[in-house]
């Protein structure tokens, strides 16, 4: 019994977080997202169309970035239904601080090189198999009340799930200056006061990176816009109710040295711990408090009789 209790305590401290991605070309995104989950105290699990799984056993879900969402998904309600039907300032620094400061200078160039090195797919390609899988996972996670984080494409797909719409191309919003596409934090967004996102990051102004091509147009049912650029391009959405559902258009996984972005993963993992307690601790306590089943009593009697004969 002590071993069982110990096992569940360990699981509670490190809740399992599913992270979706493509079959090919998503290695770098997976690594950094998993690193963000690990730093926050969670256990990352990779989910792709070739290695699918249900939401059973997960305490949280991250729908990762990548290819554009198929326009058919949000232009035709029948397609949506079919998807659901088919499946479910700095003081004097010591030596180590100076080393850390140096790594900050080389971090983004190194990250840019790594992403280019591992990139295998056209930047704005579609991935219908992934769309389908992630729809099922979102559907299951919503029904199980699991915390959900959508990153870039994942934020868009989360909005589509709740019947929201997307801008297929946001370049028309950038008439006076080009739309930047960079892993550097090149955009400044304004966050809605009182929102969950504002509470999580602890600020109403945030610098973010920009790797997206589409964006949320109208928020889905139960969702609200909680962060935008100055030109009104949506940068974050969240669920109006108590359930933890957050979608961010930027990539916080590529900004681990900034506490505001780390806090997003920390908030998800904390919510996942609460789900884990609900599913495991309470259910296990109730299960173990039940009277012993008659079948088990009979089985125990047989074992006792067999052991008794063996000792004669």
Helix content: 40-55%
The SS-based structural class is: alpha/beta
For this structure, the quaternary state is single chain
The strand order across the widest sheet is: 2-1-3-4-11-10-9-6-7
Distance between the termini: 30 Å
- Please give the radius of gyration in angstroms: 23 Å
The string of secondary-structure elements, in order, is HEHEEHHHHEHEEHEEEEEHH
Q: Low-confidence stretches at least 5 residues in length (pLDDT < 50)?
A: 1-11, 73-96, 113-124
Q: How would the global form be characterised?
A: elongated
Biggest sheet descriptor: 9 strands, mixed
Number of strands: 11
Determine the number of helices (DSSP H or I, runs of at least 4 residues): 10
Distinctive features:
single chain, about 300 residues, alpha/beta, nine-stranded mixed sheet, 10 helices, 11 strands, disordered N terminus
Any overview of this molecule?
- By secondary structure, the chain is of the alpha/beta class.
- The protein contains 10 helices and 11 strands.
- The strands form 2 sheets. Strands 2-1-3-4-11-10-9-6-7 form a 9-stranded mixed beta sheet, sandwiched between helices.
- β1 (16-20), α2 (27-40) and β2 form a beta-alpha-beta unit.
- The radius of gyration is 23 Å and the shape is elongated.
- The two termini are 30 Å apart.
- Residues 1-11, 73-96 and 113-124 have low confidence and may be disordered.
